[in-house]
Amino acid sequence: MSRVSESPHQYILRGSGRVLDEELYWDRVIGFLYGRVREEAPALFRAVTGSRMTGILGFLNYDFFLGGRLTGGAKFLRRMGVDLSECLEPPEQLNTPRRIFQRKIRYESCRPLPEGSDAIVSPADARVIVGSCARYSAFYLKGKLFTLEELLGRESWLDRFRECDAAVCRLTPELYHYNHTPVAGRVADIYELAGEYNSCNPRAVVEVATPYSRNRRTVTIIDTDFPGGSRVGMVAMIEVAALMIGVVEQCYSEEGYGAPRRVTVGMTLQKGVPKSLFRPGSSTTILLFQKGRVEFSDDLLFNQRRREVRSRFTLGFGLPLAETQVTVRSLIARPLGSKSSSNADFSYYDERSSR
To answer: How far apart are CA 36 and CA 42, in angstroms?
Structure first.
């Protein structure tokens, strides 16, 4: 058994700086699947991470096994930190696992946009790591989380994103599962790439080389350099399917969740509104920014380097990669050289917690 598989996984709660243990669903099963099964029975491993089996596992986990645990629901929801007061639906309607994981929230009030039109915001309630993908950066990801060529899947966009900056936003099952637009812009391209359905459990991510660029995913290229746009060049938003995630549903809506539309080339996107939904479970959304166009929030960069956080990513990849839990529509970056200060947005950040 590897050191990674034996270790817990921790993350940092934004604002307070508290270090929390993540409750990893099916962790032992994932460990067995990505250890012994992958090594000794590769055909079975390929079948489990295929599209047909991921649908079956999703049903068993969210409609069958977990359904028994959620009878009454309230105890489970409290333990997982789900705030029912922010949900649009009344609690009595959130009576199945799928309804809970696909819940809608009052995001305008409980996830307000930050001040400043130049803010680049998180696409999801997620645990985030950020940095530069340049070869000599501390965040160089080739052979780790993804390879750019495979992730984008189209050579036509590769040159635009060489040595890009990236934000990897990992959703966990209890979190709100809508993706929102991180920037304002016009859709230059959108396409789906076939692939596997590897788990986004940190253990699986460490064990399988570049899993995010192997999984099924939707790539949306957003041009932000036009009047009313965020003015940070091209932005790639990549929604990655995963084990027990059979569908990434495009459902863009400018007001609440009403009248959802598929995202198409040429469509103008507002910032911070619902764009897609993972059905259901845990998955990942990756943002790519052209080199030299953005600077990430100081607290995210500081947290990431905290070596006392027991992160499986740090242990598995040999570089400090502690995740910070952020909320959808919260500030994660600004245009490089912006007059707005990212430090000012997090003046309450408690550096004492890292000592």
So the answer is: 9
